[in-house]
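Input record (one chain):
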Amino acid sequence: MRAYGHRHGVEESAASIVELQSVVIEADEAFLAALRDFAQYALDDMRRLGERYDHVHFQDKCKVWRDSWPDIVLTRQYSSNSPEAA
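The corresponding structure, as predicted from the sequence alone:
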């Protein structure tokens, strides 16, 4: 598992992606409940699709989305970016 992100206020592009050593999420109960449901959705989708699973966006699947929340993208782990391949 690896975590990546974009700096706030910077136009998102492949060049703006940075690998994160740690992730801090400041959240309330509503966000954590929505994140839990999203993670379960992604897990179910990954199990159902197998190797065909690529990624899913939090803002696309969240039923109670708030514009103040950051989008979270859960991707499958590719062998080329897994720690074991490094």
